[in-house]
From TrEMBL:
Catalytically driven reaction(s): alpha-D-glucose 6-phosphate = beta-D-glucose 6-phosphate
Name listed for the protein in its UniProt record: Glucose-6-phosphate 1-epimerase
Keyword Isomerase: yes
Domain of life per record: Eukaryota
GO molecular function annotations of the record: carbohydrate binding; glucose-6-phosphate 1-epimerase activity
Phylogenetic lineage: Eukaryota, Fungi, Dikarya, Ascomycota, Pezizomycotina
Length: 319
């Protein structure tokens, strides 16, 4: 646990309200004194709730499985070490779609708090960081056999007064190189898909999974979702935000910046696919969600023995 910025640095005698933490039924929940909260299920280290201003920012299906029998349909599942159906003749070939991170039991490593400059210049805001770990020895026998590499993942979920940050560190703790892909499969909660535009994608190349994986160039400065959408936008500048805005007044609802994650998947199952997924409900809920998924998925990352890689996203809401 990083204790370098622990709250006692504020000064002896200062007793500012501190973030609160609870762990119940495999869910770790933290709240800031300013009211924001986050909940992370140990199954998949899936963020299942992020509230700001009393409002839920993430979509979770009403029929999502929360008992560890299936990846959680909603929130922020972590996709690792493969994205989508694994290719044939690859080290990941025997893994399920999207790998094993979202359907493994992670360990809670601890919480740390620190101060960040507040929105007002004379104010200091607290942030709380929750760390989760997953390693080779924690996998089921089936996953260990399917992907026999010695790895360590540390996933950090940081709640601030105006953002949620998720960062993943991947370590190769074995003797052999391995290849991986990674993605933060974020389900954002929205009031109405017809009022949403996704900005920051214009002129970018994307692979359209609804059109046999063909490549296209995005022509729209503000993408409207009007049908099943499953696109992998590639080679984006991680520092340039992807903004989900309201079409009515162009107000940003979410803004997502990334680090070391140069791809962004935009996914909405639309009417038929939503009906076809037993854990997606109610059927019309496709109108209330959009997945904007920060990842590194268009090419494999190679991690050499003893090396580490890190990437992450920062989501700001209702700016
Ligand atoms: C997206 C993929 O990331 O996840 C889609 O691009 C996929 O192709 C979607 O349908 C949901 O996947 P799953 O395995 O959670 O149903």
């Amino acid at each position: 646990m990083d204790r370098s910025n622990k709250p006692s640095a504020i000064g002896v005698g200062a007793s500012l309200p501190q973030p609160t933490l609870s762990i119940k039924d495999n869910v770790v929940e933290a709240s800031l004194p300013t009211g924001q909260s986050v909940a992370v299920h140990l199954y998949g280290a899936t963020v299942t709730s992020w509230k700001t201003g009393g409002q839920e920012q993430l979509f979770v299906s009403e029929t999502a499985h929360l008992d560890g029998s299936k990846p959680i349909r909603g929130g922020i599942p972590v996709v690792f070490p493969v994205f989508g159906p694994p290719p044939q003749n690859h080290a990941t070939s025997s893994l399920p779609q999207h790998g094993f991170a979202r359907n493994s039991n992670w360990e809670f490593l601890g919480k740390s708090s620190s101060e960040a400059p507040g929105r007002d210049s004379d104010q200091t805001d607290l942030t709380v960081k929750l760390d989760f770990g997953l390693s080779h020895s924690m996998l089921t026998d089936e996953f260990r056999a399917a992907w026999p590499y010695e790895f360590g993942l540390v996933y950090s979920v940081t709640l601030t007064t105006n953002s949620l940050e998720t960062a993943l560190q991947v370590r190769n703790e074995g003797q052999q190189n391995f290849e991986f892909k990674v993605l933060m499969h974020t389900y954002l909660s929205i009031a109405d898909i017809s009022d949403i535009r996704v900005k920051g994608l214009e002129s970018k190349t994307y692979v359209d999974k609804t059109l046999q994986g063909t490549s296209h160039t995005e022509s729209s400065p503000a993408l409207a979702i009007t049908q099943e959408t499953d696109r992998v936008y590639q080679q984006l500048d991680p520092a340039v935000p992807i903004v989900v805005a309201s079409a009515k007044d162009d107000q940003p609802l979410f803004s997502i910046t990334r680090e070391a994650l140069t791809d962004v998947v935009v996914w909405n199952p639309w009417i038929e696919k939503a009906k076809g997924m037993a854990d997606f409900g109610p059927d019309e809920a496709y109108k209330n969600m959009i997945c904007v998924e920060a990842g590194s998925v268009s090419a494999w990352q190679t991690l050499e023995a003893g090396e580490a890689w890190e990437g992450g996203q920062s989501i700001k809401s209702r700016l």
